[in-house]
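Can't attach files on this board, so I'm pasting raw text. These are the components:
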Amino acid sequence: MPKSINLHPFTVLALAAAVVTMATAANLWWVSCAVLTACALVAGWTGHLRRLAVLSASILIPTFASLLLIHGLVSQDASGLIAAAGPFRVTVSGLETAMVLGLRTAVLVVAGLLCTLLIDKHQLVAAIDLSPAPPQVGYLLAATLFLLPHMAEKQRTIGQAQALRQAGTGRGLSGWFQRVRLRAVPLVLASLQDAHDRSAHLSARGFPAAGSHARLRTVADSVTQQRVRWVALLFAVLGPIAILAPFWGSR
Amino acid sequence: MIENQENSRTENSVLLDLNIKRFRYSGAELDSLQRIEMNLAPGSLTVVVGESGSGKSTLGEVLAGILPRQGADQCLGTMNLAGQRIEYTDLESQRINVAGWAKHVGLLPQEAGHYLSRIRERVAEELVFSLENEGVPREEMRQRIAGLSKQLGLDHLLERDPAKLSGGQERLVALAALAISEPSVMVLDEPLAGLDSWATDAVTEMISRLRADGTAMVVLSRTAKPWADNTDALGKLVDGQLSKISAEEHVQQPVSEPTQWRATPGEAEILLDFSGVQLGYPGAERPVVDGLDLQVRAGECVGLAGANGSGKTTVLKTAAGLLRPTAGTLAVSASTGMLLQNSSDQLFERTVLREVSFGLPKKGKQRLRVPEVLSQLGLEAFAETHPYELPASARRLVALATVLVREPQVLLLDEPTEALDSAGLACLQEVIDSVLNRGGSVLLSTHDQDFMHRTAHRVHQMLGTPESTTSGA
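---
Top answer:
Structure tokens for the assembled complex are below.
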């Protein structure tokens, strides 16, 4: 059972932004590895390690593969040749480039995914609603975050209705493709109809709020967290400048 | 509209005055409403009855300011509300701020789930969604939730996910979410559909209390029976025209013919056999249904009764093969077909004909039955119509047609009378009779007590408590 962390969603996002920008600016493999390890530890402590591993792998494996193809197998660098065959040249610097780029991407992906696993989406929307941000921001975020769960629920319902008519009940890969084919059009049409049916009532209930608005839900916050957020945002903006400034003009 | 002298109030003030000469949907060839006159006084109860497609929902949306859609629908008439006069003319209609209008006139739609935002995690948050958007202080919102949940017995639902409520619970929550904004006029489209007897009493009592506080209520319903004793004005919509009617006149109208008495089959073949069955959903703390023992024999119609959320839908879905028991055994020895509680969940094709033919082998004999089934249910004229364009009753019959075309031996019906008008009810009764006469069986859940007693050989009382239910229960 995953643990819930008692941090304000903005605190998690600010910390993640600081870590990602500074690790990207540092461009050191060991910094990237340290960040990834820290993410894994946090995910393990909160009970999200398995999901984080699966989600990260689904994005990073194709990313690393493409970087290896581009930089590792057809390197133009003349030095440090490891192997060559026809147009393929594997060099040390080519592999290093692929690895450094891959690790930088991995930091962004893993930290980003960890945020999505740690932050409760309802808490995030409430935090935005309770912040001085325009009401439209909360509306846009809510519409985006809750669209996929709605569509997932809808496609489950359509699947049940089709199963009642013995359609889309096949097994294996062909069964999966058949289900996708049978559900795709009804899903889009039903979602549009649903949005149409609800829109008038959402408007009648004053959504999105035009002026001042409130939330029943509370989002726990503290002065310490507010300070941490400010420091993290300073690091996110000034950290990369501080890291990169010594190299300006040297290349 | 006829005034009931006994119940009419002494107040002369009129909250809302509606005079619609005609209303026509964009692209329609006929008017949906004609010569509608309504005057709503504070605390009054106005009941408008009518068959499906008579224009009740359209009238509700006009009252709520959702219709006419500017630049699309045609409307001619006037509406006076809270000192404002809205003019609808052939040339131009005034744009209504729906959110502002809703502070005065609130509408509970026929499909109550459409009223819920679906972007709040808990029922408590869903209840105060409109108050949140108005910026009402948190403490006041808490007080209103506490008051309303006490009135309607919603305490056990407040922490639940609104997306995982049963049909009846969903309607109750939507009604509470509408009432919490305290509009001066509430328009309720079939407010008691799918509610158990306890919830029906709670809603009826809440309506009385709101009226006492000065809220004008408009009830749009197939029948005026639950309201006949204390209505201030009763009207009947036929083809978009509102006519006066007395309560006696309405009650005298035959609703549907009672089914002929049938002998309960004694030792007929068992088609459905639940034995010690436990049903639940992944992640739920407790099972929805536990220790269910139920047999349904050939030629037998069994009714499932129980409170909203007691697991009736779950039992039917399990019998249909959509869910599996977590314990116990279920033996199904015949083909099953199920009518879902919400027709919209069962319809996804572009035309009625395509809908009913969906999934049938092109050269199979079932495909040949499609015209026959459409004719049996009076749907042949709608063969090329989009199911969503049909009135609610016809849409329900289309969903039933998709089931019947497969000739199931066991017919599973979840709240089949919901949204059906009297013609639809007669069709449903015929269908049930035909299934039983050919040796099949019917298992149904309904809160319509008259229908249950008229139709079922016996009633199985569900013992599950509403608190223990989860998704789709």
